[in-house]
Amino acid sequence: MMFDVIRRFMFYVFVTVTGSIAYILITIKNMVVARKKIRVQGSECKFCMNSIARTKQTVLYSDDLVYVLEDINPDAKFHFLINTHEHIVSINSLKRKDIPLLQHMQKIGSKMLQEKGCDPRSCTLGFHVPPFYTIKHLHMHAMGGGFSSLLHKLPFIDGTWLFTSTNQLIATLNKS
Ligand SMILES: [Zn+2]
Ligand SMILES: [Zn+2]
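The line above is the sequence of Histidine triad nucleotide-binding protein; the predicted structure tokens follow.
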């Protein structure tokens, strides 16, 4: 009789202890998985994703350094985004050694606009000035054929605290 009680008690202890250990392990595992998920989402960059061809948008041009998309919310008749394949956060991360990359971006942007019948000299080609940008991945806006309205033009006026033309940016880097 006594032996039976002890056996039942031991069995109860065994179930409780193993159950608790399993519960703790599962909780820890879920916490680790959740943390991992947050980390991946945090490092997920829309333009890096586009770069590895996971975009639903049509890639209009691509080479070793850049790829071109149409802006999904165009501010001008023709509005292209020249994006770097490399994850560069903003113009603030650029050094003198990046001038050839900028010249290349300018060349591709001009080419895209020329193909639409625009004269690149009368077009807007340039970059957001931090902190006034939403996507933290270097991209050049190339716009031609006229802005949709004055309101659409305002964020893209060269030399303001919002925007710098590629030529102006190159000149600044040259002086640094
Ligand atoms: Zn990126
Ligand atoms: Zn932009």
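Note on the example: The chain has two domains: 1-44, 49-175. Residues 45, 47-48, 87, 137 surround zinc ion (ligand 1) (CB under 6 Å).
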